[in-house]
Amino acid sequence: MKKFSRIIAFILIVAVLFVGMGLTYKNVVKNVNLGLDLQGGFEVLYQVKPLDGDKKIDEKALQSTARTLENRVNVLGVSEPHIQVEDPDRIRVQLAGVKDPDEARKILSSQANLTIRDANDKVKLTGKDIVQGSAKQEFKQGTNEPAVTFKLKDRAKFKKVTEEISKKQENMMVVWLDYKKGDSYHKELEKTEDKRKYISAASVDQPINSDSVEISGGFHGQQGVERAKQIAELLNAGSLPVDLKEIYSNSVGAQFGQDALDKTMFASAIGVAIIYLFMVGFYRLPGLVAIISLTVYIYLTLIAFNFISGVLTLPGLAALVLGVGMAVDANIIMYERIKDELRIGRTLKQAYSKANKSSFLTIFDSNLTTVIAAGVLFFFGESSVKGFATMLLLGILMIFVTAVFLSRGLLSLLVSSNYFKKKFWLYGVSKKNRHDINEGVNVHDLKTSYEKWNFVKLAKPLIGFSILILIVGIVILSIFKLNLGIDFSAGTRVDIDSDTKLSQPKVERTMKDMGLTPDQVQINGSENKQATVQFKKDLSKNEVVELNKKVNNEYGHKPTVNTVSPMIGQELAKNAMKALIYAAIGIIIYVSLRFEWRMGLSSVLALLHDVFMIVALFSLLRLEVDITFIAAVLTIVGYSINDTIVTFDRVRENLHKIKVITKPEQIDDIVNRSIRQTMTRSVNTVLTVIVVVVAILIFGASSLFNFALALLIGLVSGVFSSVFIAVPLWGIMKKRQLKKADNGKLTVYKEKKSNDEKILV
Question: Under a CB-based contact definition with an 8 Å cutoff, are residues 38 and 312 in contact?
């Protein structure tokens, strides 16, 4: 009996979902916190050192410094700064959307240690003598000149100081902010007024009996007003109790950020659109349900990301789109199971029920391995990499909410309505491919398009070929080494965006005009309007400031400047190796517990093969290896194992069916049948993800090119290793186990517990 109410319920649920998303999506998108690489801004990592060399930095000093920095950020007018204390002695400051990175750097690192000195640079008063919070930006009466005023704690002390200065031949009272050893009033006097380090110098003819001090004379025009205001706010924010050493910095021009966002959004839209078309074309009605759940997936992931106040970076955006591919995988596993059950002659309801149960654990296992990789990435990653891991973890959570529960709920309504119970073509199954249920055909007996393929036979030469490639790869690595980016080798990277066509000689000339010799200049982007310049040394703060001014004047846009100290480069390289090792260990433990140790070992060996393929090709092609490359590698570690897990899940089912193994040929048969039965799913899944990656590769931001290429190499290699390395390698180890088994038999024991069957392999 047809149940029209189920169709009504389906339509109402879909309508409510899409109306709700349509009414709120603008606010959701608006509330997304964009990272530095998407809106421009400034990031700096400070190593905190004591002003007194004998003292040590404790947590109290770090927290106090962080609060002072937070107060100073208010001077910059940044709406949502991110200041994070990092063990043991570091503070990371991220200022997305800040318009002037050079000014931000100057204000943040300023000691704000006010001193009043005489003409011989002897200290007379310090910031400790100032009444806290008393500094103001005002205008002088009569002249209306900008000035800074503040109050002193001790009127008598100020009178005594001014009396001493007034009696000297050079009766100058010099006000300094951040006086450093070697600075001199007389040296600064020789410079032009706008380049002098001291704030002001005024002659004192007689003692001043007042607790108010006025600094004026060095502020001119609107810029002078802003400068006076900043000094007043810095004084109120307080002086830093420590010395800050800049060990990492990254400034991104607003134009770069906007272009990167636009390009990646465009690429993502193309990739997702192609996936949608594929799902409808290949899986028909379930494919339509998948589109609905995938759209909700994107929406809910963004809501969850906003809820935890996440910061969306370029790699994070790529992770969101990559998650669409993973959500597709969850749907494909389910839909392929439905097709198999329909082919053996089950009714639509029976097929749905069986597929629902059998696919859940497969989806759970395959996604949990990705969680392990993403978790490791989150723990060891920094900045944009951590953002990538966060988005990937949220994406996996939402896969279970949408691709598993929502998708299945909606499909259940359509199935139970009985309107489509005889229309098997809507599920991608033709009548001629259906068996009669009375024939007793099992799912595992179904013929596939790959029956002529003997994967065991093919695996032997291909494993040999892989070993040869690995040897060649080792030789390539030993000769060419890796082309390490500044993230690992230390140095400075400058990305230039121009309104006109660029050339290598032109960019090199610009750098040489500033006395800088670049180690590498690369012209890229559409119409050659972008350039990447690399220095093996980390440029000083002053050099970065001058570079920003020069590039902005010549090319019309402020550049993106990324500086990494040798210390940070070494740490990132060390953490990257740790992340890879821990991810591999985590996966092998989980797979061993869920399946068996032979499957865990062969899975990890296949993964290491994939990782090495990426590394070797990047070495051969001389492509830059940066921190996003590590993110790509770890994503492949978590993602490519999906294929392996799904196939091993089918291996476990086939072992359950055979019960006792007496011949090596039986193991070969299990390997071949398992690969054949899951091959369509493996191909379809990887194709949908590759579509997204290729779209990002072609149309996405240039900064994501190497990231996307690493993913592409890993995905292709992942399918190869799952089919021709992981499962056949397990088969080889299983044959050895059979050879050593008592009586030449290998038994699959079956235990019953709470009516559930548990297979021990």
Answer: yes
Give 2's strand partners: none
- Specify which residues 497 forms β-bridges with: 530
Domain boundaries along the sequence of the chain? 37-98, 111-239, 254-434+455-480+569-760, 491-564
Secondary structure element (H or E) that encloses residue 561, with its range: strand 560-564
Tell me how long the chain is.
761
Determine the 3-state secondary structure of 182 from DSSP. Answer: coil
Find the DSSP H helices in 190-220.
none
The neighbour count for residue 740, using CB atoms within 10 Å, is: 9
Q: Which helix (H) or strand (E) holds 648?
A: helix 641-658
**Residue 629: is it exposed, middle or buried by C-beta count within 10 angstroms (0-12/13-18/19+)?**
buried
- Cβ(445)–Cβ(676) below 8 Å: no
pTM of the model: 0.75
Residue written as token pair 């001790």: 154
State the sign of the Cα–Cα–Cα–Cα dihedral 561, 565, 570, 576.
negative
Which run of H or E residues covers position 199? none
In 3D space, the residue among 123, 91, 125 whose CA is nearest the CA of residue 108 turns out to be 91
Pairing mode, strands 483-484 and 624-625: parallel
Cα gap 751→609, rounded to integer Å: 36
Contacts of 102 (CB under 8 A, 6+ apart): 544, 545, 548, 549
Which of 673, 693, 680, 601 has the alpha carbon at shortest distance from 641?
Answer: 601
Question: If you write DSSP's letter for every residue of 342-353 in order, what string do you get?
Answer: HHTT--HHHHHH
Of 406, 394, 400, 383, which Cα lies nearest the Cα of 307? 394
- Give just the sign of the alpha carbon dihedral 175, 177, 181, 187: negative
Cβ 331 vs Cβ 286: under 8 Å: yes
Write phi, then psi, for 440 (nearest 5 degrees). 75, 25
For residues 51-83, b (16+ Cβ closer than 10 Å) or e, as one string?
eeeeeebeeebbeebbebbeebbebbebeebbb
Topology (CATH) of 111-239: Gyrase A; domain 2 (3.30.1360)
Give the span between the Cα atoms of 404 and 427, in whole angstroms. 18
Q: What angle do CA 638, 640, 643 make, to 5 degrees?
A: 120
pLDDT in tens, 154-210: 889 988 989 999 988 898 888 887 787 888 999 888 888 777 888 888 888 888 888
- First CA to last CA across the chain, in angstroms? 45
- Per CATH, the number for 491-564 is 3.30.70.3220
Model confidence pLDDT, tens digit, residues 591-642: 778 888 888 888 888 888 888 888 888 888 888 888 778 778 877 776 777 7
Whether 345 and 414 have beta carbons less than 8 Å apart is answered as no
